[in-house]
C-alpha cells in the first residue's frame, strides 16, 4: 500500500509471495552461475577509488565498510542539489554522483559533516577542466622534509615566504569515512544518470516511489591510524603466523639513473672523481588511486631530461670530458622525497657508486612546460650561499646556464633575488646532507603556474599537447607539437650547460635536442603508451605494460611500475648502443670476453618492425641506464615514526568494485539480505568466474548479493 512519503510497501501476503519467488530465483542462480547476477547488477568497470594512505602520525584517504556501502543515487549538478542528500531526502543514505566542478573542499566538508546520510561518492570528470584550477595537494608540498627548518632558513620553513601551490586545497590529505570513486568513462556516467532519471526523480520534489536506483561501493581498507600502527601489526603477523595478513606496504619503486661515461658499479668512485648531476622527478599523484597523469608536475620535465641526455651523448668528445655527468630520475618525490632521500642515504653509507663528495654541481628540472614569454627561472638556495665557496660555485653555475642559453632563441634564462628560497625539489634533500652548488630550473618565478598540480586534470591538454583532427595514431606519434618544440629548446640549454659543466668547450654550439624525440615521448607518456616506438624499445616480456591510454605516475607499492620501466628503456635507447650479440649473449654478457656487466646494462629489446611490418627485428642494447631502490630509509631502519625520512604506506585491501542496481524497498532488502549472502558464498564455490579483482586491468570481480529484480528493470522500454 502507498505510504505517506510517496513510496510503497508490500502487504504481508505479497511479501510471502515475493520471498518465495525470490528464493527460487536465487536458488536457480546456483545452477546458472552468474547469469542471475548479471541480470541484477550493472558493474562499473571504469572507476578509480580513493584509497587509504598513512604516515607516521595520520591516515588519509577513504574506505567503505567491510561489506561495502550502499545508497540511493542522487545526482548533484549544482550546489543547491546538496540539500536533498543533506536534509530533505526521505531515503538515506545516499550515494552522491557529483559533477567534477563541484568536487571542492567546501562541498566535501559539507558532505563529510553529514556522513550518516552519505554512503559514498561517485565523481564524474569535469569537461573541460575547471577554469579556476583544481589541486587536491597542499599549498606547501613536502613541508618538513626539505632543507628549511627552524634551525636552517627558519624564515623559509613551512613556506613562510609564500605558498608554492596557491590553488592547493589539501583535499587529498583529508580522511573520509565513506568511499569515493572516480567515474572515468562518460558512457558509464550516462548509464547511472539515466537510471537516476528513470527511478529516482519525482515531480514537484515529492518522495520517489520504489524501486529506486542505488549504487554499491566496495573499498574496505585493512590499515588504520598510522604507519607506526600498521607496520607494527604487520611485523607481529609476520613473526608469529605462517600465513601472515600484512595490512600495509611502504610506498616504493626504483630511481632511474645513468652516466655519460660508464663506471664500475661494483665499487665506488675515488674522492677526486667529479660528477655533474642532472635530476628530475618521475612521479605525481591525484586524489584517486593510480590516476596520476602528471603532465606538468612530472612528465614534461623528465621528457626534457631524456632529450637532453640523448643530445649530450651525441657530442663527439662526450667520452673524454674531464668530468662525468649523471642523469637521475627520482621516484616518490611527491611523498616527502622518497627517491632522493634514499639516494642520499645510500651515498652516505657507501651503497651507491657515486658519493656525495663526488658531486661537482647539481642541475634540476622542475616544472618547465608552462613558461611565460619564454622565461626559464633559475632557483638557488640562499642559505648555502652564505658560504663564500658555494656562492662562487653557484655563480659559475648560473653564468654557465646563461651562456648555454644565449644561442637558443626560444629560452630566456632569468635570475631570482638571492633571498628567495628553493621550490620543492630533490636538491633540498642533497642540501640537507652537504653544501652542494645547485640550481632548479622552472617555468615559475614564485608560485606554480600549474593550476592542476597533482590532480586528475594535469593531462596533455594542461600543457597544450594537441593534435590535428583526423590523424592516425602513428601520425600523432610523429607530429611535432608546439610544446615539443618548446621543451626541446629547454633540453638543448640543459645539454649544453651540462657539457660545459663537465669541462667541454669544442662542440657546445652543435649540441641540439631533437624535437622528434620530445614529441614521441610526450605522446607515449601522455596520450597512448601502446605505440610503435615504445614497443620497439621494451623487452618482449614487458609489452603488455603498454595500454592504449597514457601511463600513470603514482609510485605505488609493486615495483618497478610501468612508467619506471619505460623511462629506463627510453633512456637506454636514447643514450645506449646497439651491439652485435645474440639473445643468449645479451642476457648473459659474461659469455663475451669484451663485455663487462659491471660497466654496462644489457637489454634484449623487441626492436622495430621489419619492412613488411609483420615481424620485429630484436636487438641487444648496451647502456648505463640502471635502477636504484627508491624505498624510504625509514623502513630499512624500522623507524616508522621518523621525522627525518618519508614514512608513507598504502593500506592493503581485498576488494575494489562498484555497481548499480534497483533496490525494491528497505524492508525487502533486509528480508532478502541473509538469503542473498548465503547464495553469494555458495555461488562463489560453484562458479570459478568469481575471481579476485585484477586491479592492474581494472576488471571487477563478480559478486552475488542481490537486492532487486533483474537487470532488465534498469533499461528503458
Automatic annotation (TrEMBL):
SUPFAM superfamilies xrefs: Zn-dependent exopeptidases (SSF53187)
What cellular-component terms does GO give this entry?
Answer: cytoplasmic vesicle membrane; endoplasmic reticulum; Golgi apparatus; lysosome; melanosome; plasma membrane; protein-containing complex; secretory vesicle
Q: Which InterPro entries does its entry note?
A: Ncstrn_small, Nicastrin
Keyword entries, A-Z: Cytoplasmic vesicle, Disulfide bond, Glycoprotein, Membrane, Notch signaling pathway, Signal, Transmembrane, Transmembrane helix
Please provide the Gene Ontology terms (biological process) for this protein. Answer: membrane protein ectodomain proteolysis; Notch signaling pathway; protein processing
Q: Where is the Nicastrin small lobe domain?
A: 49-223
Family matches, as Gene3D superfamilies: Zn peptidases
Q: Which family does it belong to?
A: Belongs to the nicastrin family.
Name-wise, this protein is Nicastrin
Amino acid at each position: 500500500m502507498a505510504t505517506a512519503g510517496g513510496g510503497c510497501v508490500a502487504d504481508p501476503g505479497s511479501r510471502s509471495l515475493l520471498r518465495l519467488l525470490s528464493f527460487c530465483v536465487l536458488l536457480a542462480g546456483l545452477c546458472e552461475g552468474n547469469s542471475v547476477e548479471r541480470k541484477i547488477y550493472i558493474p562499473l568497470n571504469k572507476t578509480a577509488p580513493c584509497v587509504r594512505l598513512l604516515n607516521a602520525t595520520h591516515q588519509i584517504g577513504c574506505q567503505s565498510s567491510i561489506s561495502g556501502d550502499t545508497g540511493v543515487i542522487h545526482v548533484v549538478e549544482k550546489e543547491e542539489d546538496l540539500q536533498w542528500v543533506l536534509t530533505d531526502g526521505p531515503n538515506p543514505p545516499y550515494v552522491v554522483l557529483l559533477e567534477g566542478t563541484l568536487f571542492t573542499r567546501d562541498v566535501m566538508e559539507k558532505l563529510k559533516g553529514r556522513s550518516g546520510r552519505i554512503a559514498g561518492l561517485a565523481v564524474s570528470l569535469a569537461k573541460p577542466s575547471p577554469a579556476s584550477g583544481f589541486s587536491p595537494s597542499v599549498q606547501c608540498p613536502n613541508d618538513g622534509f626539505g632543507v628549511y627548518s627552524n634551525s636552517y632558513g627558519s624564515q623559509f620553513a613551512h613556506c613562510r615566504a609564500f605558498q608554492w601551490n596557491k590553488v592547493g586545497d589539501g583535499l587529498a590529505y583529508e580522511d573520509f569515512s565513506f568511499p569515493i570513486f572516480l567515474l572515468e568513462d562518460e558512457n558509464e556516467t550516462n548509464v547511472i544518470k539515466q537510471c537516476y532519471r528513470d527511478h529516482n526523480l519525482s515531480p514537484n520534489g515529492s518522495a520517489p516511489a520504489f524501486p529506486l536506483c542505488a549504487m554499491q561501493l566496495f573499498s574496505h581498507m585493512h590499515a588504520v591510524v598510522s604507519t607506526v600502527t600498521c607496520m607494527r601489526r604487520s611485523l607481529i603477523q609476520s613473526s608469529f603466523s605462517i600465513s601472515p595478513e600484512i595490512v600495509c606496504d611502504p610506498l616504493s619503486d626504483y630511481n632511474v639513473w645513468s652516466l655519460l661515461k660508464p663506471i664500475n658499479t661494483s665499487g665506488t668512485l675515488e674522492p677526486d672523481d667529479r660528477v655533474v648531476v642532472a635530476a628530475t622527478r618521475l612521479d605525481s599523484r591525484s586524489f584517486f588511486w593510480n590516476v596520476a597523469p602528471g603532465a606538468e608536475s612530472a612528465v614534461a620535465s623528465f621528457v626534457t631530461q631524456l632529450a637532453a641526455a640523448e643530445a649530450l651523448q651525441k657530442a663527439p668528445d662526450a667520452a673524454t670530458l674531464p668530468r662525468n655527468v649523471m642523469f637521475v630520475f627520482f621516484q616518490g618525490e611527491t611523498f616527502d622525497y622518497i627517491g632522493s632521500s634514499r639516494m642520499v642515504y645510500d651515498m652516505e653509507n657507501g651503497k651507491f657508486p657515486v658519493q656525495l663528495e663526488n658531486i661537482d654541481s647539481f642541475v634540476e628540472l622542475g616544472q618547465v612546460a608552462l613558461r611565460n614569454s619564454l622565461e626559464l627561472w633559475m632557483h638557488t638556495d640562499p642559505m648555502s650561499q652564505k658560504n663564500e665557496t658555494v656562492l662562487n660555485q653557484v655563480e659559475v653555475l648560473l653564468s654557465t646556464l646563461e651562456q648555454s642559453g644565449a644561442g637558443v632563441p626560444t629560452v630566456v634564462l632569468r635570475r631570482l633575488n638571492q633571498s628567495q628560497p628553493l621550490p620543492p625539489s630533490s636538491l633540498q634533500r642533497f642540501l640537507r646532507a652537504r653544501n652542494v652548488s645547485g640550481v632548479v630550473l622552472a617555468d615559475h618565478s614564485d608560485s606554480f603556474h600549474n593550476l592542476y598540480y597533482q590532480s586528475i586534470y594535469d593531462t596533455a591538454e594542461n600543457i597544450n599537447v594537441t593534435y590535428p583532427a583526423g590523424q592516425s595514431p602513428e601520425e600523432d606519434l610523429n607530429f611535432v607539437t608546439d610544446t615539443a618544440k618548446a621543451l626541446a629548446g629547454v633540453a638543448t640549454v640543459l645539454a649544453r650547460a651540462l657539457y660545459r659543466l663537465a669541462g667541454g668547450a669544442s662542440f657546445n654550439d652543435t649540441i641540439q635536442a631533437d624535437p622528434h624525440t620530445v614529441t614521441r615521448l610526450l605522446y607515449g607518456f601522455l596520450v597512448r603508451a601502446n605505440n610503435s616506438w615504445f614497443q620497439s624499445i621494451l623487452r618482449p616480456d614487458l609489452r603488455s605494460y603498454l595500454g592504449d591510454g597514457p601511463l600513470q605516475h603514482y609510485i605505488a607499492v609493486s615495483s618497478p611500475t610501468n612508467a619506471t620501466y619505460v623511462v629506463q628503456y627510453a633512456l637506454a635507447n636514447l643514450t645506449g648502443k646497439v651491439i652485435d650479440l645474440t639473445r643468449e649473449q645479451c642476457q648473459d654478457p659474461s659469455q663475451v670476453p669484451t663485455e663487462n656487466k659491471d660497466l654496462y646494462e644489457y637489454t634484449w629489446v623487441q626492436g622495430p618492425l621489419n619492412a613488411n611490418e609483420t615481424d620485429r627485428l630484436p636487438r641487444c642494447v648496451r647502456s648505463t641506464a640502471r635502477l636504484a631502490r627508491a624505498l624510504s630509509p625509514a623502513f630499512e631502519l624500522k623507524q616508522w615514526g621518523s621525522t627525518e625520512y618519508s614514512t608513507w604506506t598504502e593500506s592493503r585491501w581485498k576488494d575494489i568494485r562498484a555497481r548499480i542496481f534497483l533496490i525494491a524497498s528497505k524492508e525487502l532488502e533486509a528480508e532478502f539480505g541473509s538469503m542473498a549472502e548465503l547464495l553469494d558464498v555458495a555461488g562463489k564455490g560453484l562458479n570459478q568466474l568469481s575471481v579476485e579483482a585484477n586491479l592492474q586491468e581494472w576488471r571487477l570481480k563478480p559478486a552475488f548479493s542481490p537486492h532487486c529484480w533483474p537487470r532488465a528493470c534498469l533499461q528503458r522500454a
